Amino acid sequence: MNDLLSSVKGNGAPAPAARSARTRPEASGNPFEQATAPPPADEEAPPAAPTPGGGDSSMEAFFADVATVKSILGDVRKKLAKLNRLNDESKTATRTETMKRYRDEMNGVIEEVSTTARECKLRLENLDRANAEAAKGAGAGPGSSQERTRTTITSSLKMKLKQQMAEFQDLRARLQSEYREVVEHRYFAVTGEQADEKTLDHLIETGESETIFQKAMMEQGRGQILDTVAEIQERHDAVKELERKLLELHQIFLDMSVLVEAQGEMLDNIENQVSKSVDYVHRGQVSLIQARKYQKSSRKWMCCSLICVLMIACAILLPVLQPWASGGA
Q1: Which helix (H) or strand (E) covers residue 245, if one does?
Q2: Which residue ranges does the record annotate as region Disordered (predicted)?
Q3: How many angstroms separate the CA atoms of 100 and 90, rounded?
Q4: By the 8 A CB rule, do 113 and 249 touch?
């Protein structure tokens, strides 16, 4: 119908729009074939997005293990803070029941720390074995960035565990010192006299104070003194048991010391290489800045030289060309 109207209005000539509509399918071909046609051979598929961690599954597993060890170390740190708090609170305890409660709670915390520290030590040893296996792979051998990363992080975790175990040993020494002070104060409170070193050593070693306080029992009454005797005995048992449990952590401290010292030289070499790399990068940056300055300066001098050459050429050619120009005129 449109073609007929167009032919009537345009003296029988087909409309351009109709002609283009008729000829467009012929120029484009089959529309289904065009829609499903493959892309040109010279077009490349877009590159895949990089996966986190560089796509290296071994490094992803390594960092997952590192995160677990850091979480364990944080748990050990919290338990150490709890032990210090309980120890400070126990120094003011004067009743046997209160001291026994602190004793049981502190023993439970130390047992948890021992279990956690052994787990952390085992995980660090597994990291060492995983690092040795990874060093056999391509691009991860000795001296590679991956090997340096693994060694540095693992050694740092070992050092942190060693430092935490050393803090538990400091707590053990502080328990002994504070226990001696508490016994000395209790002796003075009961007898009114300052205890000599021999008496203090006997009380600390045995915890038996009833024979020492015989005179005070006759003067002040047996019941009141027996409470102090029982509290000293309970405190003695608590300190001895805590020392025994802390000695187990001391063994872990010694094991970590051996592992850290074994890698001490390797860590020193890595730190030296890192410091040298930092210096090298800094010198490279300074050299690049100077090179840019020299490049700008050389361009400036080149332009000045070119202008001078042009001016000299003009000064030489003008006297030569001017008589020729006047003679030609």
Answers
A1: helix 222-262
A2: 1-59
A3: 10
A4: yes
Amino acid at 244: R
Write the pLDDT tens digit of every residue in 276-321: 566 657 777 777 888 887 787 788 888 888 888 888 888 777 777 6
DSSP secondary structure letters along 41-60: TTPPPPPPPPPGGGG-HHHH
In a domain, 143, yes or no: yes
> Dihedral of CA 122/127/132/137: which sign?
positive
Identify whether 74 is part of a domain.
Answer: yes
What are the distances in angstroms from CA 139 to CA 20, 145, 147? 63, 9, 9
* Straight-line distance from the first to the last Cα atom of the chain, in angstroms, rounded to the nearest whole number: 80
What is the spatial distance between Cα 78 and Cα 172, in angstroms, rounded to a whole number? Answer: 17
- Do residues 70 and 43 make contact, with C-beta atoms less than 8 angstroms apart? no
pLDDT tens profile 199-250: 778 777 776 665 666 666 666 666 667 777 777 778 778 888 888 888 888 8
Torsion angle of the four alpha carbons 38, 39, 40, 44, in this order, in degrees rounded to the nearest 10:
-130
* pLDDT > 70: percent of the chain: 67
Question: Residue 295 CB: number of other CB atoms within 10 A?
Answer: 10
User: 60 CB contacts (<8 Å, ≥6 apart)?
Assistant: 52, 53
Q: Tell me the two tokens of residue 72.
A: 């364990």
For the record, the structure tokens of 175 come out as 């328990």
Crossing angle of helices 145-191/222-262, nearest 10°? 160
pLDDT in tens, 50-73: 334 443 677 888 899 999 999 999
Dihedral sign, Cα of residue 276, residue 279, residue 281, residue 284: negative
- Number of structural domains the chain divides into: 1
The token duo for 52 is 């986190």
The domain containing residue 140 runs over which residues? Answer: 65-160+196-264
Distance, CA of 37 to CA of 42 (rounded, Å)? 14
CB 230 within 8 A of CB 96: yes
Q: Which helix (H) or strand (E) holds 143?
A: none
Closest among 179, 328, 302 to 243, alpha carbons compared: 179
